[in-house]
Design goal:
about 250 residues; alpha+beta; 9-stranded mixed beta sheet; about 25% strand; elongated
Length: about 250
């Protein structure tokens, strides 16, 4: 890892502040003064700032109940961001694992562990994501099965040539449905229902890779993931079989 990135991550200092420390010869690596911010260091080398030894902090993992109107971006000049919701937490190196659009609510995972983020979000990982959708047009019991079949077979989205992967659709009532998919195309759930001739009024993500949004978290609240939840993301396996289409329309 680059020396300046390591120091910034350990201390929460800005890159500019780290550069000032280096220029002032306040940084040592393996007991030797270093001024080159780009120097690569290893975990075996002791880094000190003003004589104080630094230790790389443990990775951080959070779940956030994202409210509507919040964007999944590290910085936005117009809207509050998901990172802004993490009050009292250093935002250094944090990244969003699985973004939601501004109007979609629910589970967002945030971490500074890039490898874990990749395991959650990479298309090849094919992790299940579960959404609760409220629809503009009511769906009759007879029409529900047609929707379920179309989601299971894959849909042609406007402007795209490749069908969506098979997805599970289960109706809760005539205006609410739960969708389970393994992709993350732009506005995918909304566009899938649009391809069927309906419109999503509201969309809420309930889970990612087996991690379920904590029901005690109000919109805008967050907490650290538990060890059990982290383990769940590691054991969640790619579901290669065609999803079963069970009509739970009531």
């Amino acid at each position: 890892m680059r020396l300046d990135k390591f120091i910034a991550h350990c201390t929460g200092a800005s890159r500019n502040e780290v550069k000032r420390w280096l220029h002032a010869e306040k940084v040592t690596v393996a007991e030797k003064t270093v001024k080159n911010s780009k120097q690569q260091i290893t975990s075996e080398q002791m880094v000190r700032v003003n004589g104080q030894a630094l230790q790389y902090p443990h990775p951080r993992y959070f779940m956030l109940n994202k409210p509507a109107g919040v964007v999944c971006s590290n910085d936005d000049g117009e809207h509050p961001t998901a990172l802004d919701c993490l009050k009292g937490i250093s935002q250094s190196n944090l990244q969003i694992a699985g973004r939601l659009d501004k109007d979609t609510t629910g589970l967002v995972l945030i971490t500074d562990d890039g490898q874990w983020n990749h395991k959650i979000t990479a298309p090849r990982a094919a992790k299940n994501k579960v959404y609760l959708a409220s629809l503009a047009q009511p769906i009759s019991e007879s029409a529900a099965q047609d929707y379920i079949t179309q989601f299971a077979n894959g849909l042609q989205l406007n402007g795209e040539s490749k069908l969506t992967r098979p997805a599970q659709l289960a109706f809760i009532n005539e205006r609410e449905a739960r969708v389970t998919l393994q992709e993350g195309r732009y506005h995918q759930v909304r566009r899938m229902f649009a391809a069927c001739g309906n419109r999503v009024v509201s969309l809420h993500r309930e889970s990612i890779a087996g991690i379920v949004l904590d029901s005690t978290l109000a919109p805008g609240q967050f907490r650290a993931l538990t060890e059990a939840e982290l383990t769940q993301t590691l054991i969640a396996q790619k579901h290669n079989a065609q999803p079963k289409s069970t009509d739970s329309h009531s």
